[in-house]
């Protein structure tokens, strides 16, 4: 493919993706800590535990940890949330990457919050577990318009309201729901999620805010996302919405058996020709058999005719 056509193809591919700038970074306004202080040491230890923890919480899409700051009457809290269809390995990798960004982008801040496409991470010396926080928010949309905004809005509202109720009813380990809704020839795919420490009412309240924000900013477009510290909503009119993250890697193909009773594989490129040869032989035999029967019948008929 020549370069101009390749460039056009790339532009078409990315024109329907979320118009997002990641990681979205909020470094807080509660002040800074001193480099090489016990605050920084504690934070570094907490962040490092993401990649080493054996906690089952990652399999439910979240990570939380806390530790007292040595020599201070403070506790440091760290929390990460992955979209609920990520595998454990993908969730850990997402949080690890985002934690590295956090240390680079907010190197000395006493609190920070970062959003990316598949996960959220935050830390603070003030406890935020079990508290609904809807600021700062992150909103983004695709650039493609839907053909019928009113019809799309009705389908979107129906889908999100159903998912909202389902996610809010989730247990203490996961408050997540996903689904789809048809709208004309298209299909809307969406997921909604809350931090698992929220109550049903708190989760519902957070997602209600998100639904209104999504409808206000993004319902004219084929995709959008709403992300706040306590919940998130993602949707796209794209059949691959769940594919990149929800499918586990395929199992390795077992090696072929070499037992004495195992049949050897057919030579490459021969299987179709072998099958074709068998069919031709059978067809030929059948045809000869039919012709032979016809000849015999004709001879019998001729012998039975009276001589003149």
UniProtKB/TrEMBL annotation:
Signal peptide extent: 1-20
Keyword Ribosomal protein: no
CDD domains: Gnk2-like (cd23509)
Alphabetized InterPro entries for the sequence: GNK2, GNK2_sf
Keyword annotations of the record: Membrane, Repeat, Signal, Transmembrane, Transmembrane helix
Region (Disordered), start-end ranges: 245-270
Ranges of biased composition (kind: Pro residues): 246-268
Entries under Gene3D superfamilies matching the protein: Gnk2 domain, C-X8-C-X2-C motif (3.30.430.20)
Signal among keywords: yes
Pfam families xrefs: Stress-antifung
Name assigned to this protein: Gnk2-homologous domain-containing protein
